[in-house]
Design a protein that fits this description.
Layout (H helix, E strand, L loop, with lengths): L6 H5 L3 H10 L4 E4 L2 H9 L5 E4 L8 H6 L3 E2 L4 H6 L17 H6 L34 E11 L4 E2 L5 E2 L4 E6 L16 E4 L2 E6 L7 E4 L11 E8 L2 E3 L1 H7 L4 H6 L8
Parallel strand pairs: 1-2, 2-3
Antiparallel strand pairs: 4-7, 4-11, 5-6, 7-10, 8-9, 9-10, 11-12
Bound molecules: pyridoxal-5'-phosphate.
The site of pyridoxal-5'-phosphate has 10 residues, from loops.
């Protein structure tokens, strides 16, 4: 049984978009984190079984019946207030490749999460099966303006980056409110015209600055790729997450919903 995890807005990919695509492929079972997420899928025409993985407070029990949802129960007392249709366990080492981890994971469960979206959690993850994952999502923004930065001038809040030479800097229309971690200030990079453009200065709420000094022929409107391919270069979600000190699951599920096309 394949029961894809489409929680956290399908890991930032858009739950309705992904849910409908999976349903069209014949998937009949889904898991989400909350009743709210389940209702969103029902209202979008998802007819199969929807398992709510997270806790639902008794005030919302009637929604479970109204929308024909399956609730995870956490103990006997909670179970007595609902009805039992099956059991499952959290596959907390499903990505493990040691014999003991594989032994712990019951093999007849298939509850794909991050792999469904074509990503590894971390770039150094080893999978038990050789899988060729194809990323579903790219994260892109556009250059708003390009400015000259003179030697000794600083860029951004806190003046954390000072130009050691004449530089060409671009403001890009994406920031931490859109899901680019502020942790990537002076650390991350974007791909512009197939080249790496380092992030300089602190990432703002809706914008960030990149160094274009080494990239010829750039102009406002050009695309900046944060996750995805650009020319011969690529940034995977797991590499992006690794630079930010986390895993791709967290990065993707935190992307602002406004980015989905
Ligand atoms: C989220 C979740 C999954 C999928 O996990 P990933 O690590 O994202 O692949 C599977 N089972 C349960 C119970 C989950 O909550």
């Amino acid at each position: 049984m394949v029961m894809p995890a489409v929680k956290a807005n399908a890991y930032g990919h858009g739950a309705v978009l992904i849910g409908r695509a999976l349903q069209d492929m014949g998937v009949q079972d889904f898991c989400v984190a909350s009743v709210g997420e389940a209702i969103e899928l029902r209202e979008a025409g998802i007819t199969g079984r929807i398992l709510v993985l997270g806790y639902t407070f008794p005030e919302q029990f009637q929604e479970l019946w109204k929308y024909s949802l399956t609730q995870t129960v956490i103990d006997f007392c909670y179970a007595r207030q609902l009805q039992i249709t099956g059991v499952f366990s959290h596959l907390c080492v499903s990505d493990g490749i040691s014999e003991s981890e594989k032994g712990f994971t019951y093999k007849h469960y298939v509850r794909p999460g991050i792999a469904l979206y074509g990503a590894l959690s971390s770039p150094y993850d080893k999978t038990a099966a050789a899988v060729n994952l194809k990323p579903v999502l790219s994260l892109k923004a556009r250059i708003e303006c390009v400015k000259q930065l003179h030697t000794g001038e600083a860029v951004g809040y806190g003046q954390t980056y000072t130009a050691a030479r004449e530089m060409k800097i671009a403001a890009v229309s994406i920031g931490y409110a859109d899901g680019i971690p502020r942790e990537l200030s002076n650390k991350g990079f974007a791909l512009i015209k197939g080249h790496k453009a380092p992030v300089v200065g602190r990432i703002c709420m809706d914008q960030l600055m990149v160094d274009l000094s080494e990239i010829p022929g750039t102009a406002p409107g050009d695309e900046a790729v944060f996750i995805g391919k650009c020319g011969n270069e690529q940034i995977t979600a797991s590499e992006f997450a690794h630079t930010a000190g986390t895993i791709s699951n967290e990065i993707l599920s935190r992307l602002g919903a406004g980015w989905i096309e």
